[in-house]
Design a protein that fits this description.
The chain is an alpha+beta fold and about 280 residues long. It has helices spanning about 1-5, 20-25, 45-65, 140-150, 160-165, 180-185, 200-215, 265-275; strands at about 30, 30-35, 70-80, 85-90, 95-105, 110-115, 130-135, 195. It has eight helices and eight strands; from the N terminus they run ααββαβββββαααβαα. Strand 3 and strand 4 (about 85-90) form a beta hairpin.
Length: about 280
């Protein structure tokens, strides 16, 4: 578990929105928590566990068809009655969701804030039972929930009965008793958690873009993501040329070579290229 998910501790935080943005109607997020439950009237517990994987894959295909490329983290879990449900979070590459309002619930003396997305009903399509979706506010908060669910870590949280009453709202209310979860996953050969192969990379790219977008007046970044400084120059693309065309004759030119003026003929080549 530490080998596969240890990277989550090293991911820098990023905030999609602030509570004040919700009040102004300006809050949106590229990540959402989801919970898919299983209606006990549909079939027996055994059938539910045998079918839930294929039904979940169908639901994910519908999400991709509707919203484009996504990366997903997913965990199985059992209610006290033995029926499965699924917790997870989705990172969208081509879609942002508006945060409609903040819902607050008190459980065992703790107040939990849930950020409701305006398009919640869209996620219901393709799933036969109750679905819950809410927006992710911070990356660190999302990864904390993901690790807790995947490791079945116990914290101060409602018991199984209370979670059933709350329908385990979208990874918001702590962990459950892990023995039942692990026993049923072993019995039905279910993998405890799954992470899209590109989830880490996609999350890193998103965080980098979010951080860079906050750096007003900054222009260029280094290979390690740090910024070069205040923008003092303007740039224009004039073409791609070999060292020989630029008159550079040294063995090791390094990363940068400063030219007082372009060699003769370069401007003609650029003009001809532009005309083409």
């Amino acid at each position: 578990m530490k080998q596969r998910l240890g990277w989550m501790d090293k991911i820098p935080n990023a905030e999609f929105f602030k509570d004040s943005d919700v009040a102004k109607g300006e809050a949106s997020t590229r990540m959402v928590f989801f919970t898919l439950t299983y209606d006990t009237k549909l079939c027996s517990r055994t059938e539910a566990w045998e079918r839930v994987g294929e039904e979940y894959d169908d639901w994910v295909r519908g999400i991709r068809s509707k919203y484009g490329k996504v990366s997903i983290f997913r965990v199985w879990q059992a209610f006290a009655n033995g029926y499965p449900h699924i917790h997870g979070m989705v990172l969208f590459r081509e879609k942002s969701f508006k945060i409609d309002f903040i819902q607050q619930d008190e459980v065992n003396g703790h107040v939990y804030s849930t950020y409701r997305v305006a398009e919640k009903q869209d996620f219901q399509c393709g799933w036969h039972s109750w679905v819950d979706v809410c927006g992710v506010k911070t990356v660190k908060g999302a990864l904390k929930y993901a690790k807790r669910y995947s490791s079945r870590k116990q914290e101060s949280s409602p018991n199984q009965t209370q979670l059933s009453d709350y329908k385990a709202k979208a990874m918001q209310y702590g962990g459950c008793s892990s023995d039942l979860d692990l026993a049923l996953m072993w019995l039905f050969r279910k993998r405890g958690f799954a992470v899209s192969g590109d989830f880490r990379e996609a999350l890193g790219d998103l965080i980098c873009r979010m951080h860079n977008s906050e750096r007003k007046g900054m222009e260029q970044s280094c290979l390690d993501g740090s910024m070069l400084g205040e923008a003092e120059f303007s740039y224009s693309f004039v073409g791609v040329f070999s060292l020989g065309e630029l008159g550079i004759r040294v063995k090791d030119p390094g990363w940068v070579e400063f030219l007082e003026e372009l060699p003769s003929g370069i401007e003609v080549q650029v003009a001809r290229w532009r005309n083409d």
